[in-house]
Each structure stands twice: as structure tokens, then as C-alpha cells.
Design brief:
A 15-stranded antiparallel sheet has the order 1-2-3-4-5-6-7-8-9-10-11-12-15-16-17, with no helix packed on it. Strands 13-14 form a two-stranded antiparallel ribbon. It is globular and about 65 Å long. With 283 residues, it is mostly beta strands. Strand 3 and strand 4 form a beta hairpin. Helices cover 0% and strands 64% of the residues.
């Protein structure tokens, strides 16, 4: 069951919502609130949430600020803090996380974007889930992170726009569990809007390589971990909107399975897909 209240004006909007569940393996309730405001060249957005799982709780907050500067430059800043609870089974029953980053994006020739940002991310060791997931040897901590990206249209096909982009993220060395040292993602997207906005087609393909990361290995000792191999991923998404009805499909593929990328005893699927229908009713 979910209830939501929203308020909007010319330059700001806000909402509060409450969701509740009944059953096993689901939270009891989750309140959430967000606020967004535009003040000339500056835009501010914030959202916070709290979830009660009965045995434990989780909470988090996120805020971002963008400022449009001369020469088609946009300054970016964000901060996030929260924790994930972890079942209250250990003396410190919290999995805390946080990050702050700042950077800029420049738009060239009205359509091409280049950007970058840097900052710090914090990840603490995982506790309370039991072996082999717990990390005793690797305590976690705070690491510097750099992210670069670029995108832009390369052609127009059948009345639509085909756009490509890439994103690269790297972090400094450290004893961080389940956190890849680097990440590279390339994507292509095709968008078509026609028939007086009554028909929309959206196709997207994402290919990526996730670099090695530390994963637990109890065979090396209590709380020990080892490095994994690279993981190649592929995702395809397709959405067709006819008036207010959306038909969507997505497919994902992962390679390098059954090797050190998997937790022992917890192998990931090599592929998965979703097919669905969404119908929006407005006013």
C-alpha cells in the first residue's frame, strides 16, 4: 500500500510518500520525502528516506546542486550519507556509506557533452551477514574517486536521434570489499518521437567492463579475501510508448561467471530479462 502527497509551483516541487508491506522478506514501511527548486541558473535537489525492517532499519539522504555558468559550463556537486542496518547481530550493526563529489560539464555545439568530477567515497567493512560475506581482514574506509564522461549525437535515422557516450571511473588503492578498482561503460541510444507525440521509441544498449575487486574467500582463512577477474556486461533496453501505454523489455548478460567474480556458493545468473507493460493514468 502506498500513499503520496505532492505540491508543485513554477520553480519548485516537493513530495512526501509512505509505503507499507505485509509478508516475509519485505520491509514494514518506508517514508520518503524530496524537494527540488530552481533559482535562476542554480538548481537544488534533495531526497531522504527511512525503512523499518522490524529487526533493523536503514536510512539515507542525498543532495545535489548544479549551477549554470558562462561558456555553456555547468558546475556539479553532490553529497550522500546513510547506512544499511545489517540485522543488529554484531556490536556495530551498521553498514555506513557516504560520498561527496564536485565537478563540471561543458556542452559543445549545443549537443556534445564532456564532464568530470572527483571526490571521496566511504565504504565500511561488511559485518553481520555471516560467512563468506563478512570482512574481518578488510576494514574498508574512504577512497578518492575520479569519474570522466562524454556523449553526443552522431546521426539522425528515420526521424530519430542516435547518440553514443562513454563513462570511466577509477578509485585509489585500498582494502575495499566488493568495490571494483575501475569501471568502463560505453552506451548507444536511439530516440524517436513522432505522430504528434503519441508514439515514442527508445532503444538503448550498454556495454561495460568492471575491473577486479576483492571478494571473500573463506578457504584462505576467516575473513580473508582475494582479487577477482574482470567482468564484462551487456544490457539492452527497449521501450515503446503508445499514448499513455509503455511496453518495455530489457536483457542483461554477464560473463566470467563460476570464477572468482562469484561469492562462493552464491553464483550469479549469466543472463536475465524482463518484459512488462505500464499504463499511466493522468488527471
Amino acid at each position: 500500500v502506498a500513499v503520496r502527497a505532492a505540491k508543485a509551483a513554477d520553480n519548485w516541487q516537493a513530495f512526501v510518500s509512505l509505503r507499507a508491506w505485509n509478508g516475509e522478506g519485505v520491509p514494514e514501511f518506508t517514508p520518503e520525502a524530496s524537494f527540488e527548486i530552481d533559482l535562476g541558473p542554480a538548481s537544488f535537489y534533495a531526497i531522504g528516506n527511512y525503512t523499518d525492517w522490524g529487526e533493523f532499519s536503514t536510512a539515507g539522504g542525498y543532495a545535489s546542486l548544479t549551477i549554470d555558468l558562462p561558456l555553456s559550463i555547468r558546475a556539479l556537486a553532490e553529497i550522500e550519507e546513510g547506512d544499511r542496518g545489517i540485522y543488529n547481530r554484531v556490536p556495530k550493526p551498521r553498514y555506513e556509506y557516504g560520498r561527496w563529489t564536485a565537478g563540471a560539464e561543458i556542452t559543445l555545439l549545443e549537443d556534445y557533452r564532456l564532464g568530470g568530477r572527483a571526490g571521496q567515497w566511504r565504504v565500511e567493512r561488511s559485518l553481520g551477514l555471516g560467512p563468506p560475506v563478512d570482512s574481518i581482514v578488510l576494514p574498508g574506509g574512504t577512497a578518492g574517486v575520479l569519474e570522466l564522461w562524454g556523449s553526443g549525437p552522431i546521426s539522425r535515422l528515420f526521424g530519430g536521434v542516435f547518440e553514443v557516450g562513454a563513462r570511466y571511473r577509477v578509485r585509489e588503492e585500498g582494502p575495499y570489499l566488493y568495490w571494483p578498482k575501475w569501471d568502463l561503460r560505453v552506451e548507444g541510444e536511439y530516440r524517436l518521437l513522432t505522430l504528434n507525440d503519441q508514439l515514442q521509441v527508445w532503444l538503448k544498449g550498454i556495454g561495460g567492463i568492471r575491473g577486479p575487486m576483492f571478494v571473500p574467500d573463506e578457504s584462505l582463512g576467516p575473513g580473508a579475501a582475494r582479487g577477482s577477474e574482470n567482468l564484462n556486461t551487456l544490457r539492452f533496453e527497449a521501450v515503446v510508448r503508445i499514448k499513455d501505454m509503455h511496453i518495455f523489455y530489457n536483457y542483461e548478460y554477464f560473463d566470467a561467471l563460476g570464477n572468482p567474480n562469484d561469492l562462493l556458493g552464491y553464483q550469479l545468473p549469466s543472463q536475465r530479462y524482463h518484459l512488462g507493460l505500464k499504463w499511466e493514468f493522468w488527471n
